[in-house]
Amino acid sequence: MSSVLLCHSITKQLKEAVEGLSDGNRESVIGKIEKLLEERQTLLSSIKPPFSENEQLLGKEMMEWNQEIDRKLIFLRTEIKRDMNGLTKKKSSAQRYTNPYQSLQHDGMFYDKKK
Q1: Per residue in 31-40, pLDDT tens?
Q2: Which of 36, 81, 85, 108 could crosslink 14 through cysteines, CB 3.0-4.6 Å?
Q3: Which keywords accompany this UniProt record (predicted)?
């Protein structure tokens, strides 16, 4: 099997993995995505021209899939960032609730304007 066909099949698996992503299985899918990306990266270095017509068609299809995969991975990254920011906000608000006077500073000054 040629390296273009192998790369095409890995890209197809990667596309299916990204499409099957949900909040419940996010960690396992991210692990699978990382593994597939590493496999595909090793194959990309072994792809050398000249290409047959079939391989050129597969390459065009892979490029279209890559654009979809990139968009979905960027969306996934923003979701993860949003979840992390929400978690830190919850943590800080819970800390303020349990100890509300912790963040007060007592090193300020008071100016009396009356003479």
Answers
A1: 999 999 999 9
A2: 36
A3: Bacterial flagellum biogenesis, Chaperone, Cytoplasm
Instruction: Please report, as a single letter, which amino acid is at residue 12.
Output: K
42 domain-assigned: yes
Per-residue pLDDT tens digits for 79-98: 999 999 999 888 888 777 77
In a domain, 37, yes or no: yes
| Residue whose pair of structure tokens reads 């079939």 in the numeric block | 54
Report the domain count for the chain. 1
